[in-house]
Amino acid sequence: MLDLDKLRAEGDALLKSFSAAAGMQITPELAVKLYEAALGKTGMELHRLTVAFGNEADKCRVAEAWFAACLMTASAIEGLLALFCILAQEEVKMSKAFAGLSKGDSYEDKISNASFDKLIRSHLSEAGYHPTLLTCNYLERHLQIFLS
Question: From residue 26, how far is each of 7, 29, 79, 138 by CA, in Å?
Fold first, then answer.
């Protein structure tokens, strides 16, 4: 389960370190505005959606609703893939998978309407990551970690 207190403490420490390096006080509100500026409106919406799906997956896992937890986890992963595609627009536009996307007029529309497998192909596979190379032992080990 996520340790939210630990994550908040790490975030506070990072904010304090960044404030010292910048030579100015950066409040959490200002940090969120900087984050929003870096991600853009669509990126921030995807980030929030992905976090929400991740939180729901964790609640499902605690309730031992395994199938729902798997679905919510897949949704969170899909959100992350879409976010990566939004942030790596130039690389993704050069991929063969992106060239095959037809739904939508804008780049963001095409990414938003892409299926899970096309998101994987457009960003991960052509970037050198090959999901087909995952071994059963790797998946089994991570499933055990998830269930513990």
Answer: 18, 8, 28, 41
pTM for the whole structure: 0.63
* pLDDT tens per residue, range 69-98: 999 998 888 888 888 888 778 877 887 777
> Which two tokens mark 104?
């939508």
Domain count, the chain: 1
Question: Considering Cα of 64, then 70, then 71, then 72, what sign does the dihedral take?
Answer: positive
Q: How far apart are CA 64 and CA 84, in angstroms?
A: 30
CA 62-64-69 angle, 5° bins: 80
Q: State the residue range of the domain holding 51.
A: 40-147
CA atoms in the 13 A half-sphere facing the CB of 77: 12
